[in-house]
Amino acid sequence: QVKEMSELYVLVASIIAKLDAKQGSLRSLCFADGVSAKRAVYALVCETLKYRQVLTQLLNQVKVFQDRKLDGKRVLVTVMAYDLLLGDGSIKGGGALKKALLNYRSPLIAALVKLKVRQKITDNEQLVPERLRNRLILPRYVRVNTLKSDVSTVMRQLSPHTTTHTPTTEQDVPDPKQDPHVPALLVLPTSVGQQQYSDLNSEHPLVKQGHVLLQDKASCMPAVALDPPHGASVIDCCASPGNKTTHVAALMGGSGSVIAFDRDPVRVNTLRRTVQRAGASTLKAHTQQM
User: Fold this and answer.
1) Contact call for residues 29 and 20 (beta carbons, < 8 A)
2) pTM of this structure
C-alpha cells in the first residue's frame, strides 16, 4: 500500500502560506474550528518559522530547489526539512515529495554539520537569529464573555491554585490579572505561567461553553472605543469570525441589536457559531457585501 503525504505537513504549509499572505494571525489559523491536532499544528508552525532562515539557507546551499519536483513546493519542503534536520530526524508519511527530498538527506545533514562547526555552536537553538532568540514575550489574553459569566468567576476558575483548573505542583505560578484598559479582558502570566495555561485553547471547557473568548487586546479596542450604550443599534460590516461583534453585544449587556454582515458564506457560518457559543441572542448575521 502506497503511503500518502502527511496531512500534518500539508496543513502546516498552508497555514504558513496564509501567514505570509497576511490572511490571518498565527493563533486564529492554527486553532480554527476545522483544524485537527491543533497543538501539533501550532508547534510545527512555530518551529518551522523559528528555523526558517537557516532551513532556507541549507536548502539553497544544497540546491534542493533546482529539482523541479521540489521547486513548486518550497513551503511544504521547508516544513518537511525541519523534521528531517532539526526534528525527530525523519519525514512522516510517504509520497513522491518525501522520496525526492530524501535524495538530498546526506548533503543536507553534512551542510548543517559544517554550518554548526563554522559558527562554533553545538545547540540547534543557537542557529536561530538572535533577534528571534531574545524576542519580547508578549502576554496572552482571554476576554470574559459577560453575557454568560463575570470576571471574578472566570478568574477563580482559571486560577492555578483552585481545583477547577489543571493541578500544578508549582506554587509560584501567578493568577491571571485584569487588564487595566479593557475591563473584561484577562492577562495570562508569561514565562513561569506559560506551561500552566497551555491548555487554554479552543478545546478548553470555558472556551467551548462560550464563557471566555481567545481574543488579543488589540482586537478588543474597537468595541471599547465605540462604547455603545445599552439599547443601541450597531452594524458590523465585516464581522467574521465574530470576536469584536460579540464584544459589542456584551458591552450592551444583551440589549439593543447588532446586525453583522460578511460577504463570504463560509465566514458567516463561522460568525454564527461564534454568536451561538457566546449566547449573543441580540446579534443577527447575514451574508452580504457592504
Assistant:
1) no
2) 0.58
